[in-house]
Amino acid sequence: MKNITKKILAFLIAFTMIIPLFLAFQIYQVEATATYTHLNRQELARELIRRHNNQQILIMGAWGSMSTVAGTTSICNIRQTAEGRMATTGIPSGQTTPIANTYLSEDLLRAILMLNDRFGRFQINSIAGGRHSRNSNHYRGRAVDFQFLGVYRPANIPVNARQNNWSVITFLREHGFILENYFGDAHHFHIGILGYNPRGGIVATPPTVQVTRNVMIIYNANGGMDAPPNLTVTLDMSGVARFSHSVTRPFKEGYRFNGWLLNNDSRYPIQVHGGLSTINTNIIDGDSFEFFAQWSPVELGTVTIIYNANGGNNAPSNQTVALDNNGFARFNHPTTTPTRNGYTFLGWQIYDDSRYPIEPAGASAGVNTGSTTGGGSFEFFAQWSPLVLGTVTIIYNANGGSNAPPSQAVTLDSDGVARFNH
């Protein structure tokens, strides 16, 4: 009897220990799958602010180009919503005025809270503000950009980009969210929420082929000419455009080309022609990205063009020619020509070197100095061709007398004149 009593007592003690654990497990289950359907838009925003103040989630007050318009930061958008106001939107890429303000989607706010419950602390970079394409769902209050930070990236989020993306996407789909679009890498995500059906909970199989998205790279000569043609670049799975700049350099008289600058904005680095470049559309959103040529003025030197009659006479005067910013001297040969008895003038040849062409009088010409400093000289030599000269016969007639001198043959000069002595 005592043994039975002891067993019953032991069972009761064990049962009383299990009940709290079971209840705690049930509470955890409820919290882990909370849907917040009982909260309206303002209440959802207030809950996010509470978590921000308690450092459960980090809502950014500035994020690069996302804060170019007052009141468009993530924390401003959440506070505006908590106060029952519309969220202030940013300025789309390529425009100078913002899109009309919008209400943040309740489904989006609900998704943020549930992701925070599931994955822990993360950073919200952009909601309705920032630079995105004109038709971006950010400006409709239905998208968020966020990222897991360093040690705050939970261990249950894989490092692999595709797996990481799908661990978040799968969770949202399991809980009935209808996704408009999404992409992400190992830490950063863009999520667009189209709707919410808490009873829909179906896990979609990740597609084997991701829909591609292209962006346009536009080159602007920025006061120069001969800008390279535009490029079409396909984004990778992480929303990053990777490409090589054109090797073609634009031209601007009196200036040296230094490289390409995105949006002509000095906050970005100047990128060299032909160099590799990347644009993360998760941070700088848009359908096209314009690169502007960057120029610096150059001090241009001069060279002297010397004319050598090369055995003749009356060589033209020398001329001084300014270099362009590529070190090229462009000029016209004089129309006046030198003279030489018994020869025909053919033209001018640099260095009197047969490897170079003979350039006629008055023709356009140029020399490449390889430098813009100048100070040198280039000598052009007259080129000649001997004339084929005829002869005449000088005949002497005694005119009724005798012993007239013999006739003589006389060669004509280059002017057609026969010069001789009787």
What can be said about this structure in brief?
The protein is an alpha+beta fold and 422 residues long. The protein has helices at 2-32, 41-53, 74-82, 106-119, 161-174; strands at 58-59, 123-126, 143-147, 177-184, 188-196, 214-220, 231-234, 240-244, 255-262, 276-280, 288-297, 302-308, 319-322, 328-332, 343-350, 364-368, 377-386, 391-394, 408-411.
Which key features would you list for this structure?
19 strands; alpha+beta; single chain; 422 residues; rod-shaped; five-stranded mixed β-sheet
Task: Reconstruct the topology from this structure.
Elements: H1 2-32, H2 41-53, E1 58-59, H3 74-82, H4 106-119, E2 123-126, E3 143-147, H5 161-174, E4 177-184, E5 188-196, E6 214-220, E7 231-234, E8 240-244, E9 255-262, E10 276-280, E11 288-297, E12 302-308, E13 319-322, E14 328-332, E15 343-350, E16 364-368, E17 377-386, E18 391-394, E19 408-411
Parallel strand pairs: 1-2, 6-11, 12-17
Antiparallel strand pairs: 2-3, 3-5, 4-5, 6-7, 8-10, 9-11, 12-13, 14-16, 15-17, 18-19
Radius of gyration: 43 Å
Largest sheet, spatial ordering of strands: 1-2-3-5-4
Shape: rod-shaped
**How many beta-strand segments?**
19
- Indicate the percent of residues in helices: 10-25%
Q: What low-confidence regions span 5 or more consecutive residues with pLDDT below 50?
A: 19-32, 150-165, 201-211
What's the tally of helices? 5
Please tell me about this protein's structure.
The longest helix is centred in the N-terminal third of the chain and has 31 residues, at 2-32. Residues 19-32, 150-165 and 201-211 have low confidence and may be disordered. A hairpin with a 3-residue loop joins strand 4 and strand 5. 19% of the residues lie in helices and 27% in strands. The protein has a five-stranded mixed β-sheet. The protein has a four-stranded mixed β-sheet with strand order 7-6-11-9, with no helix packed on it. Strands 13-12-17-15 form a four-stranded mixed β-sheet, with no helix packed on it. It has 422 residues and is α+β, with helices and mostly antiparallel strands.
